[in-house]
Amino acid sequence: xxxxxxxxxxxxxxxxxxxxxxxxxxxxxxxxxxxxxxxxxxxxxxxxxxxxxxxxxxxxxxxxxxxxxxxxxxxxxxxxxxxxxxxxxxxxxxxxxxxxxxxxxxxxxxxxxxxxxxxxxxxxxxxxxxxxxxxxxxxxxxxxxxxxxxxxxxxxxxxxxxxxxxxxxxxxxxxxxxxxxxxxxxxxxxxxxxxxxxxxxxxxxxxxxxxxxxxxxxxxxxxxxxxxxxxxxxxxxxxxxxxxxxxxxxxxxxxxxxxxxxxxxxxxxxxxxxxxxxxxxxxxxxxxxxxxxxxxxxxxxxxxxxxxxxxxxxxxxxxxxxxxxxxxxxxxxxxxxxxxxxxxxxxxxxxxxxxxxxxxxxxxxxxxxxxxxxxxxxxxxxxxxxxxxxxxxxxxxxxxxxxxxxxxxxxxxxxxxxxxxxxxxxxxxxxxxxxxxxxxxxxxxxxxxxxxx
Amino acid sequence: xxxxxxxxxxxxxxxxxxxxxxxxxxxxxxxxxxxxxxxxxxxxxxxxxxxxxxxxxxxxxxxxxxxxxxxxxxxxxxxxxxxxxxxxxxxxxxxxxxxxxxxxxxxxxxxxxxxxxxxxxxxxxxxxxxxxxxxxxxxxxxxxxxxxxxxxxxxxxxxxxxxxxxxxxxxxxxxxxxxxxxxxxxxxxxxxxxxxxxxxxxxxxxxxxxxxxxxxxxxxxxxxxxxxxxxxxxxxxxxxxxxxx
Lengths: 453, 245
Known about the structure:
- The complex is a heterodimer of chains A (about 450) and B (about 240).
- Chain A has about 450 residues and is of the alpha+beta class.
- Helix content of chain A is about 25%, strand content about 25%.
- Chain A is built from 14 helices and 18 strands.
- Chain A has helices at about 15-20, 35, 40-50, 90-95, 130, 160, 265-270, 275-285, 290-300, 300-315, 315-320, 345-350, 410-415, 430-450; strands at about 60, 65-70, 75, 100-105, 115-120, 140, 150-155, 195-205, 210-220, 230-240, 240-245, 255-265, 325, 355-360, 365-370, 380-385, 390-400, 405.
- With about 240 residues, chain B is mainly β.
- Helix content of chain B is about 10%, strand content about 50%.
- Chain B has helices at about 5-10, 60-65, 135, 195-205, and strands spanning about 35-45, 70-80, 85-105, 110-130, 140-160, 160, 175-190, 210-220, 235-245.
- The longest helix of chain B is centred in the last third of the chain and has 11 residues, at about 195-205.
- Chains A and B meet through strand 10, strand 11, helix 10, strand 18 and helix 13 of A and helix 2, strand 3, strand 4, strand 5 and strand 7 of B.
- Strand 18 (about 405) of chain A pairs antiparallel with strand 3 (about 85-105) of chain B, so a sheet runs across the interface.
């Protein structure tokens, strides 16, 4: 979704401020978020509002849907997140790579004594005190001098939107030159793990910083801090699987989903890096049984049953042993052990993406990774991710070794039981007959009841 | 006529009208009384290990020897009231019972992280005879007996779903077993302890009588002793709340 080439939209009709607030790219809270997150819907609404004719004439309008560009090459488009993950917001990855927000503006009336500027802030940047007041400044400039022409392209750096956010009024940049010239992911921090609403203001100002005409406002949100990682992750062995359970702190919120990571501890995997480990990790990470392990499981089923027979015979003395196949984390080799500091760098998040073996919803506290090879330990970890894909940290869970298990059904069949197969009964009175009898009885009862009245 | 046959004959004779027999009149109530609803808490375990030819007690080995709790409900239609004796009815019951334990490592029998679960959905069609004579004479107890047909759907499953056979039989761990069952119990008539509240409930909600009951049930759900049946019947103790309305 997103990332297509900008479309030229005909017409110079302007949007007044109230109309822009209705636009999904500004604040999606009034309408269905699911619909408004859609890039397609976003573009349709944008075009409809431009062409509908109800908007009043305005000095500055967006002639295209805002786009994203790569910082190192502004001619290249940067990808949007999926529609469900607020593609217009700025997350840590956007900030770390300093994604450019690309705007194409059409100016219908150029003031003779004004210059076009772009400001960002959490309040109304059209007010003079929001831009110039020493103690009341909540806005800062995010572009240099722009050409006063009818068609203007503006690229706003993500880091220029994020870095001043937590600063005091006095610390906020007064001029564009005060912003960091060299991009640095170190500026992508925030004291809050939630989203901060932010607006960009496109406006002409005179030499006294007074706004000329009506500004154009565009809204977004900044969320660069992911949720806290789980406090503990406990893996236990299952039948060709590892069961994961994790605990979270009391204050954890803003979790959209948990990402599970797995790395099989084969000889090749122990090296962690390289193609061999990647392949093995891929094997460990699938949620459906691979053909080899399934075949192996079937081939050895007889052995398992025989073994279970012996085990059952000696169950009295053995049954209390509890280990569940988990092994000490000290024996695990994984790129996330020891755990890296939070927030994870974009590079680290990318480097471990190949070990991802599942995702579950933010309300989940457990999951199961199946399709693993018997007897091969698997290192596991869990990370929490918020609604805009910020990964707040990763919690290693040590290793667990998938085993063959003995279930009730194994014991039953091993003991000679032959039931099953979805039979609805057997020789004698079939289950269907029972159902028919019940229906006849019910009908008779209803008839009796009617007669009794 | 034996009770079971009596009930079956009753079901098979839709034209009969026992309720209209001379001398049989319903007792007078503030509201009419036709039904009884029971909310049931069961305590028991299936007799799987008792099946002939089954070695090594698979149920007890997997789940232990303790009984487990299940929940259920029963709705009876009291089609015939016999003055100074009691009532006859027919009813249907449904209940769920399940037990789970950790599957064990096949090498050393140590518990693993996988659950192994047996789940039963129990259904019954019953004839019910309640003796109101004691209650009418001032003793707030109502003995009763039930008998009828039972059917239990069963399924054994783990984290990856219903188990499949590992022996090549092709069997899946799901099926149904039927048979007969009977119960005996006694109900404590709660209305006697607070008649004014009972009257109020009757007037406002139409509930004629409220009981606490205890019941013993024996079910032989063996599908006519079929070799391929899972014996999921057994002895069950039940307690609960019964409402007549």
